[in-house]
Structure formats: C-alpha cells, structure tokens
Amino acid sequence: MVVDDDARVRSLIRRSLEPEGFEVDEAADESELEARLIACDYDLITLDLNLPGTDGLEITRRLRRRTDTPIIMVTGKGDVIDRIVGLEVGADDYVAKPFHVRELLARVRTVLRRVSLRASSSASDSLGGEEEMGYVVAGLKLVPSARLLLDAEGEPIALTRGEFDILAALIRANGRALSREALIDARGDDADAFDRAIDSTIARLRKKLPPGTISTVREVGYRIAFPVRLITMAT
C-alpha cells in the first residue's frame, strides 16, 4: 500500500515495485487508506509524512495500536529529528525524498525480509510439544516468541516493535550493560547514527515498566537493574 497525496509519487513507486513482482494499491490520505485496509491485509505500507488532514506520524501511531504491518516512511523531510520521530512512533524504516527507486526497492525488500525472519523464528519456537522460553524480571514476564510483555497481573503491556526489541536485548543480557550501538543492532533500524532514538525509546520504556527496571551506566549504555529469571512454558 502506497500512501501519498502526490499522484506522481504514487505512480513512481508503483512503477518501481510492480516490475519486481509486487502488487501495489494506492491511497491519497488516511480515509482512503482506512477504506483499503478494510478490504485488504497488506504486507507493507509506504507512508508520506506530509498528508492533508491527518499527517503520517499520527497515522503511524494509530496503525501501531492495532497492527504490526511494516511501515516505511517516504517523505520530503530529511532532517534527523524527523527521521528519529518517525522511527519512535513505530515506522520500520525511512526514505527521504528525493530518493532513488533502487534504494526504495532495497529498503522494501530488507524490511520484508526482516519481518519474515522474525515470523519464521516465532513459528519454530512455538512448535507443538516443545518448550517455549520466557523471562521474568521485576514482576514482568517477557515471551520472545510471541513478542509479548505481561505485567504482574498477566495483562499485556503495549510496546512498539522497537521498544520490545530493545527491552528483550536488555533482559537477555541479564544485568550486563549494553551500549547504544548494541541496542541499535538489536532494534534492527539499519540507522547507526541514531543514538538519540535509543535514549528516547529507553525513556518511553521506563514509563511503562516498574520504577528502576532500566538503569543508566555512565559512558557505557543501559542495563536491567533487577535479577532476570529464565523460565520454560509448555506449548
């Protein structure tokens, strides 16, 4: 699904993707996108930041409340802050206009490959009759294969894809401090310049977790401050 209010951009993206075997639908704004989403389940959405009415950032926030469909922001805003905000609200990647069609194609393939690998990993981890691994820390339960975080009452805690990946990396480190570079790799943004995005993600996580769960290690990065316990759950 290509969402852009400029018909020329939509046509360019369509003409770039269709010869590579992709089926492409178009929408000019949020209302057209929502109408399409009712009728079709898409593998990936490219989304312009500057749209009439609701902008791309708010649309991404709303989509992330109900779907994990990959989102690549395609926009004329190339400023680092705009890129960070886009990633923070749940976008999987970011392409700034003007862009080369081969770059866009490469990013589409990379994001789809990443999602496919995650799905394959979850499926293999959840085969019937096998034991599923989980982690308990500060009264929370993390289930990596289901990409699920539960609070002390067993209720899910809503996390973005980036928040979950960073928290999972910290929990797996079991108290060892991880650098921002390591957390960027864990989040899989392919954007190693965005240290500030990691700091912002940590700040959001701290608001969702029990106080003191994540501590800062000066000149190193971040760590889980409480003991981590590995558990197994029959599937």
TrEMBL record:
Domain Response regulatory positions: 1-112
Pfam annotation, one family: Response_reg
Residues covered by the OmpR/PhoB-type domain: 132-226
SMART domains referenced in this protein's UniProt entry, alphabetically: REC (SM00448), Trans_reg_C (SM00862)
Lineage: Bacteria, Pseudomonadati, Pseudomonadota, Alphaproteobacteria, Hyphomicrobiales
DNA-binding region boundaries: 132-226
Alphabetically ordered keywords of this record: DNA-binding, Phosphoprotein, Transcription, Transcription regulation, Two-component regulatory system
KW Repressor (keyword) present: no
Species the sequence originates in: Acuticoccus mangrovi
Gene Ontology molecular function terms on file: phosphorelay response regulator activity; transcription cis-regulatory region binding
UniProt name for this protein: Response regulator transcription factor
Residues with PTM 4-aspartylphosphate: D48
GO biological process, one term: regulation of DNA-templated transcription
